[in-house]
Design a protein that fits this description.
Structural class: alpha/beta
Radius of gyration: 19 Å
GO molecular function, one term: ATP binding
CATH superfamily: Ribokinase
Protein name: Phosphofructokinase
Helix content: 25-40%
GO cellular component, one term: cytosol
Order of helices and strands: EEEHEHEEEHEHEHEHHEEEHHHE
InterPro entries: Carboh/pur_kinase_PfkB_CS, PfkB_dom, Ribokinase-like, Tagatose/fructose_Pkinase
Family: Belongs to the carbohydrate kinase PfkB family.
Mean pLDDT: 94
Number of strands: 14
CATH topology: UDP-N-acetylmuramoyl-L-alanine:D-glutamate ligase
Strand content: 15-25%
Strand order of the largest sheet: 5-4-1-8-9-10-11-12-13-14
Number of domains: 1
CATH architecture: 3-Layer(aba) Sandwich
Length: 313
C-alpha cells in the first residue's frame, strides 16, 4: 500500500473533443477525441503519479466503462483498488468550441450505489494493511450513498492514526468537517456552504477559514478563491497567493491538480510554503491544457517560479 490513498465514490471516464461551432440540430463533427480517467480522487492520484509519487485509487467499477476506467489508470501507472457495482460507470463529455475557445462541460449522473456497495468501500478502507498516511476523499457522492459517507471515512482514518484530506461539497462536506479532518480544500461556493454566509473580499474569506480551524474541525484550510487567489490557513498563520497571469485554454481539473500537488508535497515532507507554491502552480497549469488533460510537471515547475507568496500571523 502506498502512502497516499484516494477515494472516489463517483468516478467517470471523461471524453473530450473539439468542434468548430456549437449549434442546435446540426451534426457537430468532433476534431479528435480523448478519453481520460475522471473523478476527484482519481485525478488527485493521477497528479501525484505525474509528480513522481505513488497513490492508490479506491473506487467502484461497473460495466464496460468501469473496465475502461481501470485500463486507463493502468496505462498511467496508477494503482487501483476497486469493488464491483451493479450499475455502469458514468461518462462525462467536454467539448471545446474552436471558433470562440469556449469550453462546454456535460456532467452525467453516476450510477446509484446500493448499501452493500458503499459499505464495501468502507470495509476495504478499514481493512487496509499497512494503512496509508494520507487518505484523500474527493468528489461528489452518487445516489444511494448517504450524506455522512465521508464522515464515516474520517472516523476510520482517525481511528487508524492517519490524516484525512477532504474535497467535496454540499451536505457531504458539512457532515465530514463536523466529524473532523486534517485538511479541507473548499472553493468559495463550498466555503459558503460550510460557514453559512457570504464574504465580500479575500480577507473576510480568510477570517472564515481561521474560524473553522480554531473550531478544531480542520487543522488546515486550503481555500481556492478564483480571481482572488488562494490561501492556506493553519492555526498559526495564513499563506496567501495571488492568481497567476495565464491565458486559460481549458476549464477542467484545476482544483484536483491543486490538491494533488499539495498532497504530494505534504507526503514528501516538504515545507508548507513549498507545498502551497506547487499547488497554486499546478492549479494554473491544468488550465493551460484543453479537455481533461490535467497539469503537466514542466508547466508546474515553470509557473511555480512566478507564484508570489505572502504570510500573515
Amino acid at each position: 500500500m502506498t502512502e497516499i490513498l484516494t477515494i472516489t465514490p463517483n468516478p467517470a471516464v471523461d471524453v473530450s473533443t473539439s468542434v468548430d461551432r456549437i449549434v442546435p440540430v446540426a451534426k457537430l463533427r468532433g476534431v479528435g477525441q480523448r478519453r481520460d480517467p475522471g473523478g476527484g480522487g482519481i485525478n488527485v492520484a493521477r497528479v501525484v503519479k505525474r509528480l513522481g509519487g505513488n497513490a492508490t485509487a479506491l473506487y467502484p467499477v461497473g460495466g464496460l466503462t468501469g473496465d475502461l476506467l481501470r485500463q486507463l489508470l493502468d496505462r498511467e501507472g496508477v494503482e487501483s483498488l476497486t469493488f464491483p457495482i451493479a450499475g455502469e460507470t458514468r461518462q462525462d463529455f467536454f467539448v471545446r468550441e474552436i471558433s470562440t475557445g469556449q469550453p462546454y462541460r456535460f456532467i452525467l449522473p453516476g450510477p446509484p450505489l446500493a448499501e452493500n456497495e458503499w459499505q464495501k468501500c468502507l470495509a476495504m478502507l478499514s481493512a487496509l494493511q499497512p494503512f496509508p498516511s494520507f487518505v484523500v476523499a474527493s468528489g461528489s457522492l452518487p445516489a444511494g450513498v448517504p450524506d455522512d459517507f465521508y464522515a464515516g471515512v474520517a472516523r476510520i482514518v482517525k481511528q487508524r492514526g492517519a490524516k484525512m484530506i477532504l474535497d467535496t461539497s454540499g451536505q457531504a462536506l458539512v457532515a465530514a468537517v463536523a466529524e473532523g479532518v486534517e485538511l479541507v480544500k473548499p472553493n468559495l461556493r463550498e466555503m459558503r456552504e460550510l460557514v453559512g454566509r457570504e464574504s465580500s473580499d479575500a480577507a473576510e474569506w480568510e477570517a472564515a477559514a481561521r474560524t473553522l480551524v480554531r473550531s478544531g474541525k480542520a487543522a488546515a484550510v486550503a481555500l481556492t478563491m478564483g480571481h482572488l487567489g488562494a490561501a492556506l490557513v493553519t492555526s498559526d498563520r495564513v499563506l496567501r497567493a495571488k492568481p497567476l497571469a495565464i491565458a486559460p485554454v481549458g476549464a477542467v481539473g484545476a482544483g484536483d491538480s491543486f490538491l494533488g500537488a499539495l498532497v504530494y508535497g505534504l507526503a514528501s515532507g516538504a515545507s508548507l510554503e513549498h507545498c502551497f507554491r506547487q499547488a497554486v502552480a499546478a492549479g494554473a497549469a491544468a488550465l493551460l491544457n484543453p479537455g481533461t488533460e490535467l497539469c503537466r510537471p514542466d508547466d508546474i515547475k515553470r509557473l511555480a517560479e512566478q507564484v508570489v507568496l505572502s504570510t500573515a500571523i
